[in-house]
Design goal:
Layout lengths: L3 E2 H17 L1 H11 L4 H17 L4 H14 L3 H16 L7 E2 L1 H16 L12 H11 L5 H18 L23 H17 L2
Antiparallel strand pairs: 1-2
Length: 206
């Protein structure tokens, strides 16, 4: 069964960065409904910075650390902090010297990434944030039989989680002040997470 290598992740990050860049306006428009309207540019900047770090990386663990640091250094407020902490958390979960990740190692690394995000936010599933996509995606990976299925399940779960935010009331950021008015729109952070996982799955399985 195919395992995930540094070369795979380089292609996956490049694909995700390209797709997020192409949908920057869409994501900012979603964010404008309840927030500052800058999520598209924020996640584009963070992901492009991470992709740049990945493109020049020579080892898997270091690639995720450098990518996370680059995302945080891009300084786009909470988006950079949370995305960067996710990547650096993944790095923490990868054994030193690892050249590839099987499904169990992959799930453990992404779980470590989720723990990194949780150390920077109290948001949880149901709060209409990126966590509504990220948490189910990472949890789905732990139940997969191989790496290919892990990315497929993560993508499907992230998309379902993002879609669920339409019926949720915001509890974080500026959107929380809107109360019931925050109902009916998708959370931009959750949507961007779904896009990233979808590109990861599509690229790895192509």
């Amino acid at each position: 069964m195919k395992k995930a290598t540094l070369a795979d992740f380089k292609k996956m990050f490049a694909a995700a960065a390209a797709e997020i860049s192409a949908r920057e306006t869409e994501l900012s428009a979603l964010d404008a409904v309840c927030g500052d309207g800058d999520h598209g540019s924020a996640i584009k900047g963070a992901l492009n910075a991470a992709n740049g770090a990945f493109s020049s990386a020579s080892d898997l663990k270091g690639a995720f650390f450098d990518a996370g640091f680059a995302a945080m250094s891009h300084s786009n407020g909470s988006t950079s902090t949370l995305f960067g902490s996710f990547l650096m958390g993944i790095s923490d979960g990868i054994p030193a010297g690892a050249e590839e990740l099987g499904v169990q190692a992959l799930a453990a690394a992404f779980k470590s990434g989720l723990d990194g995000v949780r150390s920077n936010t109290a948001a949880k599933v149901g709060d209409k944030t990126l966590m509504d996509a990220l948490v189910p995606a990472v949890e789905a990976m732990a139940c997969a039989s191989d790496v290919s299925a892990a990315f497929e399940s993560a993508a499907a779960s992230a998309r379902a989680g993002a879609e669920s935010t339409k019926n949720l009331r915001a509890k974080f950021g500026r959107a929380k002040n809107l109360g019931e008015k925050s109902l009916g729109s998708l959370d931009a952070g959750a949507v961007s997470e779904a896009i990233i996982f979808e590109q990861f799955s599509k690229t790895f399985n192509s």
